[in-house]
Amino acid sequence: MKTIYCIQTVSLSGHHDSYTDIYCLTLLKLGYRVVLLINNYRSLFNNELNIYKKNNLFYFYNIDSNNTKLIRKFNNLFLKIIRKSWNIIRKLFLFFLFIPPLIKEESEIQWPSQSSIEAIINKTGFHSDLLFFLYLDPYFMGYSSFIHKLQLNWTGLLFNASYLKKKNYYLYKSISSSSCKGIAMLDPRYLEYYKKIFKKKRFTSLPDVIDTTLSEKIPQCCIDIKEKSANKNIIMLLGSLSGRKGICTLLKIAYNHPNSPYFFAFCGKISWDSFNNCSKADINLLRSCIKTPPDNCYFYLNYFETEAELNHLFLISDIIYSVYEKFDSSSGIIGKAAYFNKPILVQKNGLMESYIQKGPSGESVNPYDVNAIYNKFDIIMKNKYNYNYNVYSDEISIENLEKKLKYFISASISENNND
Fold first, then answer.
1. Which of 61, 73, 140, 316 falls between 20 and 30 A from 165, CA-CA?
2. 56/119 Cα distance (integer angstroms)
3. Structurally, how many domains does the chain consist of?
């Protein structure tokens, strides 16, 4: 039996929890033994994974935190200027392929060392046929020198594939290494670009799968929203509430339309340090409304421990608001909206718009045009029975993931055996 070592040690919360479970379970169903290397992971897995664990097909180990690398912020303005100038020169003269950048500014990034991975491989006694990084992005965002020096054969999943166009030295070195057996990505727009640069490497796009489970107990916030909305149409902004999610714009619309037929719900943990691009007036309005919510607004600013709890919010919503600002990737929110048959509003000219047009399963709009956004609410409600949610739901199905992952992993391991 072949053994896949899945690695998820950098960012593990919310949607990444679901990806970890779904990918491990899919690999197990494809006939592989799975060993999951994790860092500060929750104590419980879903029931199906527990069955594989009891049958000695699924294992998980914590990576020793002493074997991680820590990057600290540049607090010195002079060093910041030097770093930025150096990296501009690299890009202008196309040195990014040969000369590493000065260390990237990050608050804190952690990843394992090869020795820590090898220690777990030795402990299990299972030969590693392939390492599978379930979230590659932080290794490239943090300019990690770990992954491009890795001697074990590996592949991984890239959520945001635009790093190469930003002339990322470590990404280029990592994918060029003989240990890299290919890259899977969620954004199909970059497939041909990567194939053109790395002609001998394998690339594939995988569906942005979602967790659609529902908790047995309905969260209290859902009960409160239904009660307070008083039969108005509920417009829901949910998930991690950062500045780019358009929370200030949506709140401004709600504040300026107190007597509209809409009720606005904001649900998720708010990240105050992400509002750099919002005006002081918008932030003050947000703080004021959170402290004393308008009659047409509801705020639940706590973290949802499970996707199963979060999913209940879709059931009570009439419109899902995902008009993100300066955001060109996708989101699992689109898939959830389609699965639960809820129309969604997204920003124009992005990957999310291309996905919702397949049904169509919603509408798109300029994220900075408040009048246009409000008008779209009316359009969506008039057309709510005309949307087709099945096209995108089928595309991101677990069955489609199994089919594409089966070929990609099998080919990657076969390449290992031919080395």
1. 73
2. 19
3. 2
Residues 293 and 370 in one domain: yes
User: Are 177 and 229 part of one and the same domain?
Assistant: no
pTM given for the model: 0.85
Shared-domain flag, residues 360 and 405: no
Nearest residue to 36 (alpha-carbon basis) of 2, 60, 3, 12: 60
91 vs 169: CA distance, rounded Å: 10
**List of the chain residues with pLDDT < 50:** 43, 65-76, 102-109
Range of the domain at 313: 220-395
List the CATH number of the domain containing 280: 3.40.50.2000
pLDDT tens per residue, range 331-341: 899 999 999 99
Nearest to 174 by CA among 200, 149, 194, 191: 149
Q: Per residue in 102-161, pLDDT tens?
A: 444 443 445 677 888 899 999 999 999 999 999 888 777 655 567 778 889 999 999 888
Q: Are residues 245 and 202 in the same domain?
A: no
The Cα–Cα gap between 142 and 73 comes to 11
User: Cα torsion for 35, 41, 43, 45, to the nearest 10°?
Assistant: -50
